[in-house]
Structure formats: structure tokens, C-alpha cells
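Final report, closing paragraph on structural work. Over the funding period we assembled a curated collection of sequence-structure pairs, and we close with a single example.
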Amino acid sequence: MRRPLPLLCLLALAACDLGPDYTRPAIEVPEAYRATDATAAAAWPEPQWWQGFRSPELNDLIAQARVANFDLLAAIARVRQADAQVRISGAPLLPSLTFSPSAQYQRNALGSSGSFQGVSFGNKQIENHIYSAEFNASYQVDFWGQNAATYASAQASLLASKFDQETVALTVVTSVADTWFQALSLQDRLAIAQQNLRTSENVLGAIRGRLTVGTATALDLSQQLALVQGLRANIPHLTSQRAKQVIALGILIGRPPEAVNVTPGTLNTLALPPVGAGLPSDLLLRRPDVANAEAQLVAQNANIKAARAAFFPQVQLTGSGGLSSIAVNTLFFGPGSTVAALAATATQTIFDNGLKQGQIEQARGKYDELVANYRKAVVQAFTDVEDALTALRYTTEQEALEAQAVATAQQSVDIAGAQLAAGTIDVTTVLQAQQTLFTDRDTLAQVRLARFQALVSLYKALGGGWTLPPQDAGEMTK
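Its predicted structure, as stored:
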């Protein structure tokens, strides 16, 4: 009983933990968002939030992006790498065992003149066959928890990779929606520009008719012609901008731009799904980027433990055992020789010129950097929600007011046109009314796009329907 006692003591101490234990850094969490009523009901995004716009084409584009987007595929590959690193880091926690079978053959030939102590012998050949099978075991006693800390760091890094994948997926989905909305908005603006051009050309024709009868001047004709030419020149620009947005969808869905087609449509027919921010305290469990920042903290905290454990002796246990025989059929079931060995070694660094001290200081400095990154991620999350809420609130108000302005400008154009036909006003008044209407129409289309973009930004700021899984939360806080 006395012989294995020292070994049992070593194994009992293998669970020693040099700390420090992870604690979440203190952060300031506001009670409510400034841009919304504190009593407003929360309406968190659904995981498939983009379906609320009720567009089959948008659903199809996002489905393609979720399968073939290059950034997302790279993020998935990084998760596989992190998962493999967990297995690599966990390997030293158990002994390694190897099996080494071997076979040896020797043949010695003796000449006819051979003799020994006066006894002669003729030509002889001596053959030797030796077979052996040996098992070798090696185990580094995790005396100070270094291997366990390395394994814990790899597990936290795996979580960080998973959260990063979710962040990339959210960015890809919102980028597809935003780009598609821009393409539709440019289609709306192009249709408005073409309608404005037709209206201006009709007025130009009327002025030419009046010029022939002497009720209009060459200046009137020139002014209206300049307006028509300006509207006509704007159409290629809008067409080009729309084509660029369609091309941009290609890289997002992982296909060449020639394979991307967007059906001409309009933002006016899309639904606007409701969404509410809820409480700021709930946001931290719904942002994958915040979870990623904290998982990196947990991993680095474990790295500090591993760096501290490196200051202490490392204990290695090795053992081997096997059989040896001159015949294969008697190796395991016949007479033979047995071989066994057991050894324990301890290694302690006496002088490394500050190497280990530098490593632990580096680990602590990295941890402090990640603390700053985590706090920044939290504040950035609150900032994103505030920005999106503010933008959505005021673009909604602006769109309603701009719609009223368009209606009023349309009335002015109708009245001016009737008075011009009656000869009671000059063409300058008509031109002014037209320009106001054309500008208001285009502005309304741009404001409507800004409202859709603000809504998408709010979905993204709220985590896009993602929630920290309870098991992952337990892994980071245990």
C-alpha cells in the first residue's frame, strides 16, 4: 500500500486550480432606450424576420445567401476548425496508449574450420526468430490544471466561433435585404423620373403649340426644354445605379452577377412588419457579437490559468509492458518472456530568462484588451438600437409628411396646367409647380427607402431573432 501512495497523492492534486475564476466585467446597462417609450411592449424579431415583408423574391434571395455566401461558408469552416482544436486540446487529459509489435530475424553462417576448445565442427547455420508485442502508456499528470485550462480555452473559443458564425449570418441576411430594397427604390425612382419626363414632354408640346399662335415666347419654350432635357439625362444615372445594386446581390448570394435577376418591383407594395426593442437588459442575450466578445474573454481567462500553471513542475508518467517469444504461436499463449517498466519524471524550469513571466503578462494584457472590446461591444449594441429606433421613428414621420407634400404639389400642377390652358398665367408658374412636384416625388421614394433601411437596421441591432442558448450561457459562466 505504501508504494502507490505517492502516485495517488499526485492524482488527487491533479484537480488543483490556480485561478483566477472568470467573472463578467461590470457594465452600465440603461433602464430604457431614449428613442422609445419605456412602457412600450417588446416585439423581438422572429428568426425568419425577413418573411414579414411578404416578398417571395426576397425570401428566395436570402435562402440562397444562407447556403452559398462565401463569408458565411468561411465562418462555418472556422467553426469546424475550432471544434477540431477542442479535440486536440482535450487529448492530453487522458493517457496516450501505443501498441508496438515487432519481428526480428537473424542468420549466422559458420565455416568448416570452425573449432572451439579443440572441438571441430562442419558448416552450420544458426537462425533466430524473435517476436514481441509491447504496449506503451504515457500520461502527463495535470497537477496544476494546465491541460484542463487549455481544454476550457478551446471550448470557449469554439463558442466564440459559433457566435461569430451567427454574426456573419445576420450581416449577410441584412445586407441582402438592404441591397434588394435599394434596387427596388431605384426602380421606383426610375419610374417616377420616366413619369415626370412624360408630363414635361406633354407640357413642352403644349408650349410649342402656343408658340405657333403667338401666346408663348421662345424663352418659355427654352425653359421647358431645359427641364425635359434634365429629366431625360437623369434616367441613365438611375438605371445604372439600379443595375449596380443587382450586381451587388451576386457576391452576397455566392453567384456571378450574370446569374442574378431581380424582377422589377416597388417598395410601395411591401409590408412593414412590426418590431419593438424591449428592455436594454434583454439585448445582451440576443446579440451574437456580444456573446462572441464574452466567449473570447472566457477563453483568455483560461489561457491565464494555463500560463500560471507553467511556473510549476510538470509530472510525466510512462509505462510499458509486453511479451517476447521465439515463435508467433507462443507469443500470447505459450512460454515466453514478459517485459514491464514504469517511470515517473518531474520537470521544473530553473531559469528561462523571464520567458514564462513574459507569457503570463502577455496573457493578462490580452485579457485586458478583450475586456475593453467586450464593453465596447455592449455599448455598441445599445448605440445600434438607439440609432435604428431614432431613424425608424423620424423616417416614418418624414414619409407621412412627404406624402402630403406630394399630394399638395400635384394639386398645384393640376391647377397651374388648367390656368395655363386658359391663358391666365405664364409658363414660369407651371415650371415652378412641375419642379416642386418632381422633386417631392423623388424625395418621397428616397425617404421610403430610408424607412425600410431603418427597419432592417433595427432587426440587425436586436440580433435578428437570435437568442443565446441556455447551454452555451452555462458553459461561459461555469
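Residues 13-93+142-312+354-477 form a domain with the Outer membrane efflux proteins (OEP) fold (CATH 1.20.1600.10). The chain has two domains: 13-93+142-312+354-477, 95-109+121-141+314-347. We thank the funder for supporting this effort.
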